[in-house]
Amino acid sequence: MRVGRREVNLTHPGKVLFPDDGITKEDLAVYYRDAAPRMVPLVHDRPVSLQRFNDGIKKPGFFQKNVEKGAPPWVKRVRVGKHGGSVNHVLANDAPTLVWLANQNCITPHVWLSRADKLERPDRMIFDLDPDADEGFALVRRTARELGDVLREAGVEPFAMLTGSRGIHVVVALQRRYSFEQVRDAAVAVGSELVARRPKDLTMEFYKRKRDGRLFVDVNRNAYAATAVPPYGVRPRPGAPVATPLAWDELSDRRLKAQRYTIRTVLDRDPDVWAGLRRTAGSLPRV
């Protein structure tokens, strides 16, 4: 496949990755090639964990962090220290790399909240509003709007994204001068304030058995080496839904669902809906 100045080899392009929809590896590669202009600025220089499905989404997939061998020399990587050694993470810095990832049957490239040159200093804070399967999405939309109110009161600007799975991520851009511990502490404070306003509907309880049907306000992704689905990342679910950045007023749309947009529809949307994200980067929210 020709991608910019590069030729990216696609092996078995007709392999069906989404059996119910007939979506092939080539379809996935074409999507990531076409999504790259809007996706790359939002994932640039962030270490990637590959969620791969070599036999399609009907069979178990696996996560791969280390990519030491087999990648073309133009695929950028960063070496990250870990207990007892190190890991070479891919950086999805251009369209050819996204297509190469698709050729590895990587459906979702999960990314860090920090960038390669300052791995210890995150530039995003994420709140994952994660419903149980039987909860209505209206509660998720309402909670995202109310979380936005708390964040604005705390002096920061919120951005919303459909996860393409079950919920909504609310994201805050940060200056890169705080540790993950500081960011998580601030996220816990925001989440606690939100839950205190509606304790019958919301919880920060990690264990499902203790949630009693309440919506989980999850701040646990705000940690070193933790990852999150990136904007325009495809999810391994029927229909190939996509994590979709939203304009804030879209949270009032009753038709909105976490899997509303797919690889066949998402690129028809406004490409600049999150254009102002990095310009809002500032201090931690103060509750």
Counting copies of identical and different chains, the oligomeric state is single chain
Mean of all residue-level pLDDT scores: 96
Helix/strand-derived class? alpha+beta
Q: What about the largest sheet?
A: 6 strands, antiparallel
Describe the fold and architecture.
With 287 residues, this protein is of the alpha+beta class. Helices cover 22% and strands 23% of the residues. It contains four helices and 16 strands. The protein has helices at 25-43, 95-103, 137-153, 180-197, and strands spanning 2-3, 6-7, 16-18, 23-24, 47-52, 62-64, 77-82, 85-91, 106-112, 124-130, 159-162, 168-173, 202-203, 215-218, 227-228, 244-246. The strands form four sheets. Strands 5, 6, 7, 8, 9 and 15 form a six-stranded antiparallel β-sheet that branches. The chain has a six-stranded mixed β-sheet with strand order 13-14-10-12-11-16, with helices on one face. A two-stranded antiparallel sheet has the order 1-2. β7 (77-82) and β8 form a beta hairpin. The longest helix has 19 residues, at 25-43. It is globular, with a radius of gyration of 19 Å. The mean pLDDT is 96.
List the helices and strands and how they pair.
Layout: E1 2-3, E2 6-7, E3 16-18, E4 23-24, H1 25-43, E5 47-52, E6 62-64, E7 77-82, E8 85-91, H2 95-103, E9 106-112, E10 124-130, H3 137-153, E11 159-162, E12 168-173, H4 180-197, E13 202-203, E14 215-218, E15 227-228, E16 244-246
Parallel strand pairs: 13-14
Antiparallel strand pairs: 1-2, 3-4, 5-6, 5-8, 5-9, 7-8, 9-15, 10-12, 10-14, 11-12, 11-16
Helix pairs in contact: 1-2, 3-4
